[in-house]
Amino acid sequence: MRMLTAAVLVAAATAIAGPALAADFPQYPPVVDIPDVDYGVQGAFYLRGSAAANAFWTKEAYGIDCVICGVTPEEETFPVDEAGYGYSLGAGLGFETGTGLRFDATVDYVGNDGLIATGDAGEYDLKLRSTIALANVYYDFSLGGNGFGYNAAGGAFGYVGAGAGAAFNKVSIDASNGFPVPSGENTSFAAAGMVGVGYDFGAVVADIGYRGVYIADLDNDADFPANVRSENNWLHEVRGTLRYRFN
Prior knowledge:
It is built from one helix and ten strands; from the N terminus they run αββββββββββ.
């Protein structure tokens, strides 16, 4: 009888004390995964290198056809019959903002031969060697599945760009009539427009595109009547570029 009474008392005490003890323990919410902090798209400096094939064109050149010039020679207009062809190699340093905008400064060495201007006394073959320094701005936009706009995840992209600067030119001319035309150098305003496509691999970005370079003036800087010049010159390039990001 005593054992039964003790068992009943223990059971009753447990029933009363259990909820009270449970109430003393803190209640914790279920574990929730906290996402990583999104710091947004980060900018990066980059180095770039380019190589291009080019075609050089201008509508006409100006000079004296000295084989037939008289006592008082006057400047003549020489129509251009054939474009010149060549190459360019370039390097640069830039910064991309992470928003699609990027900026760089580039220096390209240009070689081009074969532009032909024709006068009454024969043909004149222009050889151009130029160093072109430009400050450029571009906008990159995604060509992936996320629609038109900048895609920070990399992959395929397109771009448009523009640049302005100076061209440091060396002009050489060979005359088919054997008349010596002096070579010379000049400095001219230059500008460029770019469009192309590429692929962002991460640390390395590759692209290929068109660049049109405007060179305002070419001149052999010789005294009259040996001076030869051309205005509104265009260099058309198909250009491949590799960029390497520092971070």
